[in-house]
Inverse folding.
């Protein structure tokens, strides 16, 4: 198998990793309640997805 000739130094390894970072999820606006929601995801506020009720909101009282 192909094999690296030299060990990657800590500096080189860490410099490579400077490009690793968490990406912000794509955000949209719920068409039912107007709150910010992750795209392709049921709204956490009202439980609607693409204009229809997908998940009934639990009523905690
Ligand atoms: Zn909503």
């Amino acid at each position: 198998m192909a094999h690296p000739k030299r060990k990657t130094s800590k500096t080189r390894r860490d410099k490579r990793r400077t490009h690793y970072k968490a990406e912000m999820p794509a955000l949209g606006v719920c068409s039912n309640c107007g709150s910010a929601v992750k795209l392709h995801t049921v709204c956490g506020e009202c439980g609607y997805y693409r204009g229809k009720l997908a998940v009934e909101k639990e009523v905690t009282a």
